[in-house]
């Protein structure tokens, strides 16, 4: 997915990392540009991934990581048995609602990060088989992880979108630009 983060747009290190995170969010948001609700929920191959499901997953994941860093209980709890639900819109959920939810999560992420005294501050990682017991990470690591997670799924979304209607990330960037100028 094509992105460009101008050097002068971010200021400090936290601003730079937030700008790169937003660029990756933009790629994922563009992947659903102009899709109907039915198209956004459609599987395009053997994978269970859908464009709308990726939006939901990334929004929930970002919220969960920020709550972890704030050492707050998770608003949305997933277990091994319910993890798959973060990848699909449920009954009563819509793509516009999920995009609005993600926008709120993004604003809370930015407010939280901008209020940090230092990106060197650490927080305890959640208990998981892939993390060492009692592991801690820096806020810098958290932002880099969110960029990584969002970029990975934005790439998935590019493939899904092209499989749906043939539109590539470059075409969607042009459409988004034309809509803004329109």
How would you characterize the overall build of this protein?
- By secondary structure, the chain is mostly helical.
- The protein has a single domain, classed as Up-down Bundle (Four Helix Bundle (Hemerythrin (Met), subunit A)).
- About 55% of the residues lie in helices and about 5% in strands.
- It has six helices and two strands; from the N terminus they run ααααββαα.
- It has helices spanning about 15-30, 35-40, 50-70, 95-115, 140-165, 170-180; strands at about 120-125, 135-140.
- A two-stranded antiparallel sheet has the order 1-2.
- Helix 1 (about 15-30) packs parallel to helix 5 (about 140-165), helix 3 runs parallel beside helix 4 (about 95-115) and helix 3 packs antiparallel against helix 5 (about 140-165).
- The mean pLDDT is about 95.
Question: Please, what is the oligomeric state?
Answer: single chain
Helical residue percent? 55-70%
How many structural units, i.e. domains?
1
Spatial shape:
globular
Number of distinct helices: 6
Pfam families: MST
Protein name: DinB family protein
Organism: Streptomyces kronopolitis
Summarize, please:
The protein is mainly alpha-helical and 182 residues long. It is built from six helices and two strands.
Topology:
Elements: H1 13-30, H2 37-41, H3 51-69, H4 95-115, E1 122-124, E2 136-138, H5 139-165, H6 169-181
Antiparallel strand pairs: 1-2
Helix pairs in contact: 1-4, 1-5, 3-4, 3-5
Brief descriptors of the model:
182 residues, mainly alpha, Four Helix Bundle (Hemerythrin (Met), subunit A), two-stranded antiparallel ribbon, 2 strands, globular
């Amino acid at each position: 997915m094509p992105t460009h983060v101008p050097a002068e747009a971010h200021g400090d290190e936290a601003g730079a990392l937030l700008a790169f995170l937003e660029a990756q969010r933009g790629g994922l948001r563009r992947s659903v540009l102009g899709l109907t609700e039915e198209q956004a929920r459609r599987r395009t191959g053997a994978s269970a991934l859908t464009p709308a499901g990726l939006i939901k997953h990334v929004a929930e994941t970002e919220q969960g990581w920020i709550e972890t860093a704030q050492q707050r209980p998770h608003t949305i709890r997933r277990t091994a048995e319910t993890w798959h639900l973060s990848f699909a819109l449920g009954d009563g959920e819509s793509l516009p609602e999920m995009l609005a939810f993600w926008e709120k999560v993004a604003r809370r992420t930015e407010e939280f990060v901008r209020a940090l005294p230092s990106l060197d501050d650490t927080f305890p990682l959640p208990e998981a088989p892939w993390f060492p017991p009692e592991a801690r990470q820096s806020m810098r690591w958290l932002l880099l992880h969110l960029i990584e997670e969002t970029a990975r799924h934005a790439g998935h979304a590019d493939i899904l979108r092209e499989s749906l209607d043939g539109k590539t990330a470059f075409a969607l960037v042009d459409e988004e630009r034309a809509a803004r100028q329109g």
